[in-house]
Amino acid sequence: MDRIQRINNQVTSKQCSNKKSSLSVTDNRTGKAYEFPITNNHIFGSDLLKVKSPSGEVTRYYDPGYTNTICCTSTIGYIDGDKGILQYRGYPIEQLAEKSTFTEVAYLLVHGELPTPSQYETWNKKIMSHTQLDVPTNNMITSFKYDAHPMGMLVSMLAGISTSYADQNPALQGGAGVYKDEQLVNKQIYRLLGKMPTIASACYRHRIGREPNQPNSNLSYVDNFLYMMDRNNENEYKPHPKLVRAMDILFILYAEHELNCSTAAVRHLASSGVDIYTCMSGATSALYGPLHGGANEAVLRMLEEIGTVENIPKFIADVKAKKRRLMGFGHRVYKLLS
């Protein structure tokens, strides 16, 4: 989908949303009628404040699990589970997976457009300049027990890093104004994108009883991540290109999935004015859960349990009989739409 087509689609969507539409509701308790405007196929929860019980109490909308509630509108991602559509900023995921890199897609998600060659070069340089960890941070990693779960370590490390950058901490700067400083916000984006692979790989290396590898800024983003994960004693180690490309595509596919549990956690925490690293620690905690990102680990354990191809029919039969759970399928968005 080219830029002109995407703009046309946005204009068409805007025109449709401008058409007059509303929802008429009659409260049978009081006999009062209400008309709520519909914008982009939703009504505003604040409109329900007008609906009062006979005793004057406000009528609430009860929606456990947020099964039919939205708290924001966004042009970042779009999913249509029935049609198998996933788009980032209007670009089909198939095109991005085939032709882009993760860092290019990250730029797209942050800035709304794909970068020019010079913008892409600058973007990558700034990210890779923030890959190093200081000595206290490395010491935090090695202080964990040898069998600590890497995700638990990552949650703690992100919270710990929040104490390292006073310039971005609203609690230390007297308010949430740090989020209004574009230059300061961008710096945290570079820091997070740069340091996350280093921290993640160091947590993994600690878990398997090996020393962490220092980042190699001469490699690409994903090359560097796999280098830090897998290098042992080789002087000139370089990850296999096919593994790098597979990981790059995997990063692209995981980069955006609308307002999922971890994304919602970031927004909720950030609304309090806390620093972004603490927000990311909370989001990683949400991702840790087996019903969110932790499902990936559950899939691997499930595959280990199945063992061989011959065991698959029996396993599927047990799933259908509700004796077992099939992990890795049935994302909440698609489940609701199916």
What this model shows, in words?
The chain has 338 residues and is mainly alpha-helical. The protein has three domains: 3-62, no CATH class; 126-288, Citrate Synthase, domain 1, CATH 1.10.580.10; 304-337, no CATH class. The chain has 15 helices and five strands. It has helices at 3-18, 93-99, 102-111, 117-128, 135-142, 150-161, 170-173, 182-207, 221-230, 241-254, 261-270, 276-288, 295-306, 312-320, 332-337, and strands spanning 22-26, 33-37, 77-80, 85-88, 91-92. The strands form two sheets. A three-stranded antiparallel sheet has the order 3-4-5. The protein has a two-stranded antiparallel sheet with strand order 1-2. The radius of gyration is 24 Å and the shape is globular. The model is unreliable at 10-18 and 334-338 (pLDDT under 50).
Order of helices and strands: HEEEEEHHHHHHHHHHHHHH
CATH homologous superfamily classification of the largest domain:
Citrate Synthase, domain 1
By DSSP (H or I, 4+ residues per run), the number of helices equals 15
Going by helix content, strand content and strand pairing, the class is mainly alpha
- Which fold name corresponds to the CATH topology of the largest domain? Citrate Synthase, domain 1
What is the averaged pLDDT score? 89
The overall strand count is 5
The largest β sheet comes out as: 3 strands, antiparallel
CATH top level assignment of the largest domain: Mainly Alpha
Q: List low-pLDDT spans.
A: 10-18, 334-338
Gyration radius (Cα, Å) is: 24 Å
Structural shape: globular
